[in-house]
Structures are given as C-alpha cells and as structure tokens.
Amino acid sequence: MAPTFFNQGFQRKRPSNHKLPPGQYETQDFPVLSAGPTPRIALEKWTFMLEGLVEEPKKWGWQEFNALPQQDFNPDIHCVTQWSKFDTKWGGVSLDSLLEHVQLRPEARYVMATSYGGYTTNLPLADLREEKAFIGLTYDGQPLTPEHGGPARLVVPHLYFWKSAKWITSLRFMAEDEPGFWERAGYSMYGDPWKAQRYADDDE
After folding, report:
1. pLDDT band with cut points at 50, 70 and 90 for residue 2
2. 122 with 183: CB under 8 angstroms?
3. Rg, Å, the chain Cα set
4. What Cα–Cα distance (Å) separates residue 204 from each residue in 90, 196, 200?
5. Whole-number pLDDT of residue 35
6. CA 192 to CA 126: how far, in whole Å?
7. If you average pLDDT over residues 62-71, what whole number do you get?
8. Sign of CA dihedral 121, 145, 25, 82
C-alpha cells in the first residue's frame, strides 16, 4: 500500500554521521505532508485537552498553554515516506510536564491523539513519557507554521512522523489500543522506524 499524502518537494542529501533507519534517506528540507487540507486555527479559539481515563479532564487555551514551562528539543525525525531529517530544532512543552496536571487512572495504557480537522493516531502511553514526546510550538525559533502543524503539534520523534499529529487538540487516555486514521487504512499500529514498521504486516 503506497502512502497517500499531499507532498511539497524536497531535496535529498548524502547521509551524514547520523544513523538512518532501514529504507530511509536524509533530506535537508522539511517536506510538507498532510492527509487532507491544512486547517487554520485562530489562536483565541485554540484549545488542548487531556481527557479519557483521567480523574478530571484538563483543558488549556492558547495563552494558558504558552504560560507552561517550555524547553528546547533537538531530535532526528523520520517519515514513513522514507525521508529523515537530523537535528531539528523545536521549542515546546514536554508530555512529562503536561501529565503532571492530571491523575491517570490505573487502567490507562494507550492514547488517541486527535487533531483539528479530524485526524487521529494511536500511541502507547509509555511512548509519551520519559522525555520521549512533546507538544511543539516553535520550529527553528519561529512559531510553528500551519503547514507543519501549527499552532501546535504532537512530536514523537522515535516513531514514524505520522504519529506526530499535526494541529493537535486533545489526547484521550484509553485502556485498550484503537486504530487511528492511517492505522485503519492498513498502517502499523506502532510505527517503529528502526523496525521499518510501515504497514500492518510489518508488525508481525
């Protein structure tokens, strides 16, 4: 099954000293890939929520969210369409910090990320903890553009980048794993680049 994305052109680069996952090549650009039209979210209407298996849901508006402690992040990222980009420069809020604002129920083991526009993708809760993920607000020192998921996107660099949901609006905590948008279309439920888990058959 071939990925179906809107794709802005990019240039390849010879591999650097960084290690590439199987089947990947390095690019100097930051390709724009989306499963549908790019939503434009007014900041005064933007919200982000932690919900589902929590004792009390937590919701932020734009100003409240930006008042949270922020960090710089410098991960390599890997797309299922086979490009990798090294040393990307983000600013944002770690998921570890966000999880301090809710009390998870003991049965919470999975998360469904939901975006403005209706996109969804599933992740194990463990893959959002221990400095593995963040909500990106800036890229290369500038506010994150809508094309790259702004005003805010989930970033989970150790998984294929379709798991890093653009235009994030909520994380719903669940007891059982559920497929999101691309997972229902036959993509891997997990998406580990180092195991080349692109499609469901790769999970076996």
Report:
1. very low
2. yes
3. 16
4. 34, 12, 8
5. 67
6. 14
7. 98
8. positive
In DSSP notation, the chain reads -----EE----EE---SSPPPTT-EEESS---EESSPPP---GGG-EEEEEESBSS-EEEEHHHHHTS--EEE---EE-TTSEEE-S--EEEEEHHHHHTTS-B-TT--EEEEEETTS-EEEEEGGGGSTTS-EEEEEETTEEPPGGGTTT-EEE-TTS-GGGS-SSEEEEEEESS----HHHHTTB-SS--GGGT--BGGGG-
Bridge-based pairing state of the strands 12-13 and 25-27: antiparallel
User: Is the pLDDT confidence value at 104 over 70?
Assistant: yes
The mean pLDDT of the chain is 91
Residue type, 26: E
List Cβ neighbours of 100 (8 Å cut-off, separation of 6 or more): none
Checking if the pLDDT of 203 tops 70, the result is yes
Cross-strand bridge partners of residue 187:
199
pLDDT for residue 17:
63
Q: Which amino acid is at 50?
A: L
